[in-house]
Specification:
With about 80 residues, chain A is α+β, with helices and mostly antiparallel strands. Chain A contains two helices and three strands, in the order E-H-E-H-E. The chains are: A alpha+beta (about 80), B alpha/beta (about 220).
């Protein structure tokens, strides 16, 4: 069994209104000095067996084409045994 | 003229789009997301709504529906396609149009009668408008902010591919007030506001949306 973790974040130059709303809430709840908040997504995918070769390549491809939109988002993927 | 209207799970405006096609004088043909048969239609409308619940990203899952497999190939070959709202999001996710639609900068779902200026009348879906014509049609979206990198925005402007721009109010934070764009060839158009809700005095704020649907019939006749 392998576990794939894919983190997807908006690119730095894309406005993140949700992050900005969270930033405002943190300030209202007393946390001073919050310079910036960016909100992202995390996918945790469990797959049977080892993830390697063609299946690993396909996972990368789908992380880029399905789980993220490369026009506005960056992704980072890691495989945990 | 046979104008296909695709229904995805979660489409809302497919019936209004079909009705707009009919009022304009075309024959609406229902197309189904799970069927890759385009039924020999002359053009296709991707309607508004929340396809696949807007899960993941708006349009991200719809892009991989069987009907889209056929549609992307046909559109690249010149088939006219109009994507409205969620349809626009699907066209961007499918890379038939550049850029992406993101959450409104206000974080609010916005529903209003929106003034627009039609800026390009060379596309197959805007040819019945006058250049610079101002129209008012409904707008209703939560993720309608058009974004693209500066080079793409400059290219769209330089090539006259911004087909409509928001006037008076920018309702969603779209870059450069962009409400709609087209591809190079002018057969594929994406628009965030809803012309299909403004085709009859009884049910719309205006009938300003109707020329989108008569334009395609005019364009198809001219091309025949």
């Amino acid at each position: 069994m392998a576990r794939v973790v894919v983190d997807v974040m908006l690119k730095p130059e894309i406005l993140d209104p949700q992050g900005r709303a969270v930033q405002g809430a943190l300030g209202r709840l007393g946390l001073t000095g919050v310079a910036d908040v960016r909100q992202g997504k995390q996918f945790v995918i469990e797959v049977d067996g080892e993830l390697e070769g063609e299946r690993l390549e396909l996972m990368h491809k789908l992380a880029e084409e399905l789980l993220s939109n490369p026009v506005i988002e960056d992704y980072r993927m890691r495989v945990e045994a | 003229m046979r104008i296909g209207v695709v229904t995805f799970p979660g489409s809302l405006d497919d019936r209004d789009a079909a009705r707009a096609v009919r009022i304009a004088g075309g024959e609406p043909i229902p197309l189904w997301h799970g069927d890759d048969d385009l039924k020999s239609v002359d053009a296709v409308v991707l309607p508004g709504g929340f396809s696949y619940g807007d899960y993941l990203r708006c349009g991200a899952i719809a892009r991989f529906a069987p009907v889209m497999h056929s549609l992307v190939a046909a559109a690249e070959g010149g088939l006219p396609v109009l994507g409205i709202c969620n349809g626009f999001q699907i066209l961007c996710e499918s890379h038939l149009l550049p850029g992406a639609l993101t959450r409104n900068d206000s974080l609010h779902f916005v529903c209003r009668d929106q003034r627009l200026r039609i800026e390009d009348v060379t596309s197959m879906w805007t040819s019945d408008f006058d250049a610079g014509q101002e129209i008012v049609i409904p707008l209703k979206n939560g993720e309608g902010g058009y974004v693209a990198d500066e080079a793409t925005l400059d290219r769209l402007e330089g090539e006259g591919r911004v087909i409509a721009r928001y006037l008076e109010v920018n309702p969603n934070g779209s870059r450069r007030d962009i409400a709609g764009i087209r591809n190079e060839r002018g057969n594929v158009v994406g628009l965030m506001p809803h012309p299909e809700h403004a085709v009859e005095a009884l049910t719309g704020p205006t009938t300003d949306g109707l020329p989108f649907f008569t334009s395609i019939l005019t364009s198809l006749v001219a091309a025949a």
